[in-house]
């Protein structure tokens, strides 16, 4: 599997209750590797996909660190080192209350400067699936890369999946424009909020069903409510969540996506693959950061 997407440095600040404006708020702070695309690649490798490759762009400031961290997770890296922009950084503010809900402050840096010149047709050699992080759709150079990669995948008959990634950026880009850009993709993996935003429907099941008229297979992540699997305009399965006590929800959706795609590539049916995704999501929310634990 080839993943094309963002690689960033996450600074996770876990605090309890509202932030205190104008003064100090006590927090536990850690710096960890992240990025939706990179997280998906790591979880796919962790869940048994034997060959996971990642194309992403980083700054000189943290290129060696990210390369080591990805390699330690079993990911074969194709990193483009940007000579001008620093590595992207995300400040993850995590309320340590019951839901461990998070808010992101995002400086995409080099991550959204991928461009067609960073692509090589050889990246698809031996690849059975191309996965693209939704963040690639939110800058002009990355959109040009997306078009190049999609054309190359279609020419080789390689299926393509997309995770929309961010409701805030989707609003800025425009729903219709995003749906046009993912034309021809075979799997879409939105969150509940993203599915509702992309369809204008308030009910997640209705939203997933509607999206599956546009994309053949839609797997809508529902957080603590599991996942919905929709095809041909109908929700075909409701997959329950795996119980977990959340510590940090950062990267839970990426964990689901990586585990789902790994299972799909190894022959699982979509419903079974979604169950694997739910299990990975439960593991992810019980730890700080968006990457899997070390080991199998």
Characterise this structure.
- By secondary structure, this protein is an alpha/beta fold.
- 33% of the residues lie in helices and 25% in strands.
- It is built from 9 helices and 13 strands.
- A 9-stranded mixed sheet has the order 5-4-1-8-9-10-11-12-13, sandwiched between helices. Strands 3-2-6-7 form a 4-stranded mixed sheet.
- α2 links the parallel β4 (52-59) and β5 (75-82).
- The longest helix is centred in the middle third of the chain and has 17 residues, at 140-156.
- The two termini are 18 Å apart.
- The model has no long low-confidence stretch (mean pLDDT 94).
What's the helix and strand layout?
Blueprint: E1 2-4, E2 8-15, E3 28-34, H1 36-46, E4 52-59, H2 63-72, E5 75-82, E6 88-95, E7 102-107, E8 130-133, H3 140-156, E9 160-163, H4 167-173, H5 175-181, E10 187-188, H6 192-199, H7 204-211, E11 217-221, E12 227-231, E13 234-239, H8 252-265, H9 270-285
Parallel strand pairs: 1-4, 1-8, 2-6, 4-5, 8-9, 9-10, 10-11
Antiparallel strand pairs: 2-3, 6-7, 11-12, 12-13
Helix pairs in contact: 1-8, 6-7, 8-9
């Amino acid at each position: 599997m080839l993943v094309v997407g963002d690689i960033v440095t996450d600074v996770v600040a876990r605090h309890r209750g509202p932030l205190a404006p104008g003064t100090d708020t006590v927090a536990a702070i850690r710096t960890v590797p992240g990025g939706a695309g990179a997280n998906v690649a790591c979880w796919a490798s962790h869940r048994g996909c034997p060959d996971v490759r990642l194309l992403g762009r980083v700054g000189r400031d943290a290129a060696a660190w990210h390369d080591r961290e990805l390699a330690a997770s079993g990911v074969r890296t194709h990193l483009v080192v940007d000579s001008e922009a620093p590595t992207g950084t995300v400040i993850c503010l995590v309320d340590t209350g019951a839901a461990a809900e998070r808010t992101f402050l995002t400086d995409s840096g080099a991550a959204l400067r991928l461009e067609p010149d960073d692509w090589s047709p050889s990246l698809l050699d031996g690849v059975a699936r191309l996965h693209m992080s939704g963040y690639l759709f939110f800058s002009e150079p990355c959109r040009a890369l997306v078009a190049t990669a999609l054309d190359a995948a279609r020419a080789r008959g390689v299926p393509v999946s997309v995770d929309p990634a961010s409701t805030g950026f989707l609003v800025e880009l425009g729903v219709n424009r995003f749906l046009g850009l993912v034309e021809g993709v075979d799997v879409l993996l939105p969150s509940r909020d993203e599915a509702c935003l992309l369809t204008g429907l308030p009910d997640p099941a209705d939203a997933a069903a509607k999206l599956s008229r546009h994309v053949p297979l839609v797997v809508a992540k529902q957080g603590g409510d599991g996942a919905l699997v929709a095809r041909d305009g109908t929700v075909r399965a409701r997959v329950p969540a795996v119980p977990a006590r959340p510590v940090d929800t950062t990267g839970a959706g990426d964990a689901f996506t990586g585990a789902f795609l790994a299972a799909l590539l190894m022959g699982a049916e979509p419903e079974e693959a979604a169950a694997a995704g739910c299990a990975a999501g439960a593991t992810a929310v019980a730890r700080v950061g968006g990457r899997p634990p070390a080991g199998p």
